[in-house]
């Protein structure tokens, strides 16, 4: 019988341990959550705990928030005026560069974000296909937000690889 356990380095304590790599990390630290997020770049099986999910959500919020604020400050500081004396609405190089970097980050994290969302749904014992409800404007995102707040359901183990 095959099991999906692997000997890995425990992120928080530095000691070696054997664990099921599909099981959620309960009470994940930020480092453990980010490490697993990138190690499971395009993995859609297994489960993700609330802490794993919300540390990544916070990281994304910080990256987009700081990047957007920085782009806004650069845009405001370097914007010129047009021939009529009005503030130019053209994007400056610095703001455009930051916007481009944020877009590249978005593209680089599409698959891991979908994978994390699917694994979070698995942890609450729902099919990963439920993530498609997110394409419904406003209400789809609201439903996924509420589902991401639910606590783990033991029957979600059925989504772990055997």
Automatic annotation (TrEMBL):
The keyword Transmembrane applies. Pfam families: DUF805. The chain crosses the membrane at residues 53-74, 94-116, 128-150. Keywords: Membrane, Transmembrane, Transmembrane helix. InterPro entries: DUF805. Residues 1-21 have a biased composition (Polar residues). Residues 1-24 are annotated as: Disordered. GO terms for cellular component: plasma membrane. The keyword Endoplasmic reticulum does not apply. It comes from the Bacteria. This is DUF805 domain-containing protein.
